[in-house]
Design a protein that fits this description.
Layout lengths: L6 E6 L1 H8 L4 H17 L2 E2 L2 H7 L4 H11 L3 E4 L2 E4 L5 E5 L4
Length: about 100
Amino acid sequence: MDCGSKPRGLAISVPEYMAETSDFRPGEHAALFLLLLYAQKHGLVPDDDAVLARIGDMNMADWLLARSRLELFFEQGGGYWKPASLDWIRRTRDDES
C-alpha cells in the first residue's frame, strides 16, 4: 500500500478562509472543519441531521441554526454531502513538507 499518496491534512489560506467565514460563531468554525476532516477520511458525509450534528460536535438545536451556513461549503446530492471546491483549502500529502 502506498501511504505516501494518501492525503494527511488540510492546509488553509487564513485570509481567504476568514473572508468567507468572518461572521461564523466559534461552533460553526469547529463544525466546518470537523465535517471537512470527516469527508477527507470517508469521502462523503451522510445528509442526515443527526449524523451531521454529531460529526460537527453540535447539539441538534445549534446544528439546525448552523446548517444553512455550513451547507454552502458542500455539494449535496444522492443523500450525501461532498466538500465543494474551496479556494482556501489545499490538501496535503505525506510526501509534502
